[in-house]
Specification:
25% strand; ten-stranded mixed β-sheet; globular; eight-stranded mixed β-sheet; homodimer; 519 residues; Glutaconate Coenzyme A-transferase; alpha/beta
Chain lengths: 519, 519
Amino acid sequence: MKNAVGKEIPSEILGYGKVRPFTGAYTNIGGNHTRVTSNIKANSLKKGAAGEDKLINSIEEVIDKVGLKDGMTVSFHHHLRNGDYVTNLVMKEIAKKGLKNIHVAASGLFKCHEPLVDLIENQVVTNITLSTISPGPLAKAITNGKLKNPAVFMSHGGRPRAIESGELHIDVAFIAAPTCDAYGNMNGSFGKSACGVLSYAYADAQYADKVVAITDNLVPFPASPVEISQDKVDYVVQIEEIGDPNGISFGPTKVTTDPINLKIAATTARLLDEIGYIKDGMSLQTGAGGTSIAVADEVGKIMKSKNIIGSFGSGGITGYFVKMLNEGLFNGLFDTQCFDQVAIQSSGINPKHMAMSATQYANPNCKGCLVNQLDIMILGATEIDVDFNVNVVTGSDGSILSSSGGNNDTAAGAKIAIVVSNLLKGRLCVLRDVVTTVTTPGETVDVLVTDYGIAINPRRIDLIEKLKDSELPIVDIQELKAIGERFAGIPKPLQTTDKVVVVVEYRDGTVIDVVYQPK
Amino acid sequence: MKNAVGKEIPSEILGYGKVRPFTGAYTNIGGNHTRVTSNIKANSLKKGAAGEDKLINSIEEVIDKVGLKDGMTVSFHHHLRNGDYVTNLVMKEIAKKGLKNIHVAASGLFKCHEPLVDLIENQVVTNITLSTISPGPLAKAITNGKLKNPAVFMSHGGRPRAIESGELHIDVAFIAAPTCDAYGNMNGSFGKSACGVLSYAYADAQYADKVVAITDNLVPFPASPVEISQDKVDYVVQIEEIGDPNGISFGPTKVTTDPINLKIAATTARLLDEIGYIKDGMSLQTGAGGTSIAVADEVGKIMKSKNIIGSFGSGGITGYFVKMLNEGLFNGLFDTQCFDQVAIQSSGINPKHMAMSATQYANPNCKGCLVNQLDIMILGATEIDVDFNVNVVTGSDGSILSSSGGNNDTAAGAKIAIVVSNLLKGRLCVLRDVVTTVTTPGETVDVLVTDYGIAINPRRIDLIEKLKDSELPIVDIQELKAIGERFAGIPKPLQTTDKVVVVVEYRDGTVIDVVYQPK
């Protein structure tokens, strides 16, 4: 069947089940929902004894304690990013126990999680659900169909939605805790492996049957501040090192120095100014890419020159947003993950730098998530097509490069969602007739700013009207594609097998696209 | 039937239902539990529109919006204590709508809630559930059987347990919010009506079908810090004044100046020192009564003289505990309600002064509540009996004076629970053969310190052993009662009707006692 972005989707996928096809960005949003029950084993006590001792000697021991069995789902959070040791350490012990068919439901996995590839090959791990992935051996293994069942890529808001609705039931959550006491109170902002806020782990802590904190900084009771509290934690394990904080920042998390990208950023800021979006009370989110941060920088300059005070910055937070907060350009920051040390330090001390849960950030089925308040979203893309559909999951060769993250959440919520990109990347044109994989539907994407011109989604007649006398280089998207193709040629269609390696869910849980194993 | 504290309890009570009798302090603690589902109406959005506007013009209008109907349960929190305006304002509008048989599930009600008496008489309100009450017209009306169905008195930990287990389902929670933005992010520590932490409202915000924030300090988005977040809030109403913060502190929340009470406090501290409980890592909770705070003062002096650093102070927090925190006597404070302005201000700025949910505080069916970590608990009592059962609910004349609060939660958890009291109050002896109403079972109460001697629960052979050579005035509890009765005479049995006016639940939801209407 064809879904609402025109993608042919199987009605049922082996190892995933029946497919609910994507029916439009807003068709399943709203209405009544039920948060599922969650199961608790109370930590009992007798007078003078503080219940069962939560402190367990080793990861090996705690796996027995929580009763982990074949086929169960374990979860991890990704705030230590490419410096995370916990996922590998836990999965190694799970493998040692001879467990099989484990579902790894991590909020994100990185290059450092290469050891999972062996576990995939041995069918210790047969299912993976995630919202963030970076290129590397694991992404390659998934691309090449090594995983028994298709990986499921959820958005940052889709993941807590799936957890709260019961679609994603977590048996055991393992939470890397940079600071923790022996009774499970923890925070992410302090300790030798501080990673900042633990936002993506909040749903796991609330809804997993068993919750294990793994820390390399066991402090006397009570850990303070308490970010995840003891009443949600079954066990605590102290280990040598939970990660290498140097692995948190990688890739560009600073303003780009490339003159073309700086020009794209300046053009974007000028466009935002011309349409009147840079004003008191405005809110802004960008990714951590160099061009995105450059847009924040350019917007910041305009804000300062006009004495504008914004409402909030949000998302993954970089030092650049911390600087904007400290300069008084925003009233607050809402943070789901810290991208660098400046952000990590700020998260621990500035009450206006606030952790938010993934539900508060982007869950479409809550009483109002933050993306609904967002004015301006600067998006990245590996490809975009003439219908403004965005791909952040695959390269044009069909290999997995990333996952949905907050891309389709923020695009759906923000008053304006702008993709910033060079028109040509390597020898390829980012603009396509149809993107290889749709992550974010075109109906939610408003503008594409490139080094060869700006294309505005024809749905946004309000923007077209506002910019009709602008001197900005506004062109039709077809025209922009033609320019790109003059340089890069017309891409050959991608050849794939019929094996589905990734199911890409839209934030509402419908299937917006699938990734087939490339030939 | 007789329950485990020897009280004769009906097996079924009209307007309450089937009774689960109290079977012992620890018999229902532990084991597996399920947090209930909760119902959400998602706040939907279309591109460029931030979902349904949450800001509603008036309380009257919001009552229509949330679909309040006859027989439903509405909830309130009590952090504004005797200065709260919100409960009365909401209930007045509910009455105006002609609604009947409303269940008021407030965490606490005070003298200021006198207007509820009329609503009880008109059967607008037919059920009340609470954990805190102060003497006044409402307590009198309940004593006199005006309420159609028996009031249910829960402990501070029993209330969130009942909410999470589904025993107490809240249709609409109305949350007085001293600072709030138009999308429902709120905190209690700032604003003209600041009341400090909003802890008792957290369970309501998480589990009520509808959540309404009522504020007199609507701030630009985002309110910071966020104590209860927007994803849990359906509507926001701005009104002139949510309360009078001067009503928060009443009664003694300072060290007593009465020499006899000071002597009781000093004796208590000396006892704690002799048994070795005043040591590094210790934790302490007291009520807000003058003698209790004097105990904290005396303990603090010993801590200072021995350079002892404790772990935490907890419970309702007074300025005295803030002072102890600031002097470095504790690593942290866990706060469920602020009892004075010093505590309120500290709650907003000191990261070591931490809000905790009522579940984290005292819910016996979570993964480990704070009372399990508590070393020393100083309890108040209106009566205590020779089996060490404590009454905090009724006077000896059967009239309602208070509710369970955290009394039986902390007694069950703390390594030592000490009742401090004058032996004689007015012309009555607090020591009885059997207390009028059992709130806290004697098996969890360890010591009674009075101005005429100290009685130790014979179950605590460890304490008796430790104190066998002490010069402290340790006497048998029967002897102490005899002393009291020499002054006060033997009390006449209380005459009651057979109408149950209050069902007193133990923290596990079993019925530990009932209050009959006095004759």
